[in-house]
Every structure is written in structure tokens, then in C-alpha cells.
Amino acid sequence: MSLFNPPLRRSARLQCPIPRVLPRTALRSLSTPAHPPLPTEDTLRSKYPFTGSRIRERSTVTNLNTARKIVRAMGIDKLGGKGNGPVTVVEAWPGFGTLTRAVLELPNVDKVIAFESDKSLAPWIEQLAASDPKLSHVQKDPYDWDSYTSELDSGALSAIPSAPWEQSHDSLFYLAQVPVGVLGEQITAQFINCMCDHSWLFTRGRANLGLVMSEVAYNRLAAPAGNRGKIAVMVEALATAREAVPGEWLSPVGEHLWPREGPRTKAGQARLKDWVGVVLEPHVSGSISPDLLEMWEFVLRGLFVTRKHSLKKSLKHLAPNADILAGPIAARGVDLNLTVDKLSVQDFEIIVDEFNKWPFKPDVLFRDTPRENRHGNKNK
Are 303 and 311 in contact (CB under 8 A)? Predict the structure, then answer.
């Protein structure tokens, strides 16, 4: 069975509104340049075992039909038409460039800017860029914030037009195949924080993010009150997380992604077998003001240390004598007996407000800013 053209199945539970294979006439009508071939399965097996390598935390789409479904389900084919300028898709961790090809095929997309720094994968993007003038390859690490800021200032991203925050940016989209493990969780959390103060790509406006990620990671993002952690609270406060590509579309993983078995982050760890496609849509007006972002980070981090304890018991973890805030917090309608993971965003707004007004709160909340990356470079 070919890795790239497996038998196409229709889920019994889900009627897919998008054709799994585009008609040949439709593909011809796009008039796209001839793209170089994707790696064969023999090439993948011999040169890209991933296990034990520095890219072991990554999984990349290798089925072009699947990639075409993903970009349409995320709404990339519907961008443009609102007067915000040419449509630009910024892609991170493109891997072999399968999603990249699917985006380049779309007639409404004018520019694709792909960030791929891995030396074993970058040549695939270089070859693709040489065949298609719509693609620019930036050989910089998508996890390093300076990769974006330098390109926004004077590089490939500098020509992206700005749009009012009140209006969804109809000509900019960020697409990423998110690595599993700590790296992927950190970068996703930083994306969400940037929505609050309109930094990073959000300096250009309220653009959507499309993330191909493990279902485990998505469940953490979208977890409801009662079974959630800090990141799910931040997502609810600042964005809407929509499952655009259900797990059924990417199952079994071996027919759609490489490695076939899913990546492993550590030796002996169970492989991640379920993947989804998620669209994050920033709120026009989030629940967190930019000047209180660090305070929210500090309060949530402190309280979720004891997520299954009541708020009344957990307040003391914020600072010495912080449990004195229980009175004013309760007076504003927050149930002190609720466990931390059951508190609503509105509850956290009150808690953060009372902690911020408290004269004995810590002067320094973090030794480093919340969005300082692994190289010590701040997102300015």
C-alpha cells in the first residue's frame, strides 16, 4: 500500500464536506508550477527514521490528498477578498513540504513563507521554492522568536499589510505542524499570550492560526472547567479553539503522516497515534488586558500547582499571607470551595484583580518574562 495514496475511506460517524481528492480538471485549472516529487516511502525509511534523531519530536504530513483536505478545512482557500492585500501564509515546521504544496495550489494564496531550519529537511523546501516563485524559504528556527521579529522588521514578513484588530485579518494565516512534547506546548502557549498584547504576527492584525497537533495537546487546549490546566484557561480567555480536522481524517496515522507510528519524545514513552487540525481564532476583546498578562501568568501558575484543591486552600501558594484575599474574593461571588480546575474565566478575572490590588503582592513576578525563548531572546 502506498503511503501517499492509500484507499480513501469515509467515516461512518462523520460525513466529510470536503472532497478527499480534487478532480484532475480542478487541479489543472489552478495552473500551478510543476512541483518536485515528495520523498518515496523507501527514502523515508532509509533516511528519516526520526527515532533517536533531533527531529524525533516531529511528525509531518506526507499524503498530499490529506494535505489538501487540511488546508481547506482550516479555511485557507477562503482567505482574501476583504481588501487586506495579497494572501500570505506563514508556515512553520513544513517538513517535507506536503502542506506547503497544498497551500501553493490554492489560487487565492499569493505568498507562502516557510520556516524550516533542520538540515535534513530544509533541502526539500529549497527544491520546492526553486520550482515555485510563490514560496520563500526562511532557514531559521520557528521556535526562536528572533526568527520572526527579524523577518517582520526587514525580511520576508515585512510586506504583510496590517488590518484593524476589530476585523479578522483576511490575508494572513499562520500554519504549523506542532512538535510534540515540551517544545510544542511552550510555543503554543506563547502564541496564545501574543494574542493578548497583539505582539509577534499579531502586530499585523487578528490572524488565525492553523495547527496540526497531537490530539493529546489539543485536549489540553480545549479542556472544559473541571478537567483543565492553565493553558485551557488562557485559551478560553483569549481565543476560540476549533477542531477543523477531526482525528478520523488522520487515522490510521501511517496513511497520512510520517513517522507511521507517530513520534516518541522519550525512550520507552508511548507513541502518539491520534492527530487533529485545530484553528485558533483570537477574540476581538479578550478577558485579559495586556498590562495584566504577567499577573495572570503568575496567578494561574501558582494556583494550578494544586489544581484539585479548593481555591481557599490554594491561595496561600501565591504568596505568604495571600489567603487573606479569600474574603474580598468571596464577597465578589467566587465560590472558595471550588477546586482550582473548576473555576471559570470570570472567577479568575476577580482573583487576578484582587491579587493585583493587594499591596503585599510580590514586586517581581518572574525572573524572566513569560515569553522569553530557549535562547534568552525576548519577543519585543
Answer: yes
Q: Which long-range contacts (CB under 8 A, 24 or more apart) does 8-15 make?
A: 8/65, 11/246, 11/248, 11/249, 13/248, 14/246, 14/248, 14/249
pTM (two decimals)? 0.84
Q: In the structure grid, which three cell numbers stand for residue 181, read together?
A: 512534547
The kind and range of the H/E element at 240 are strand 239-245
Phi/psi at 85 (5° precision): 100, -175
d(CA 133, CA 169): 24
Confidence (pLDDT) at 20:
43
For the stretch 146-201, pLDDT in tens is 899 888 887 788 888 899 999 999 999 999 999 988 888 899 999 999 999 999 99
Name which of 109, 102, 72 is nearest 87 in CA terms. 109
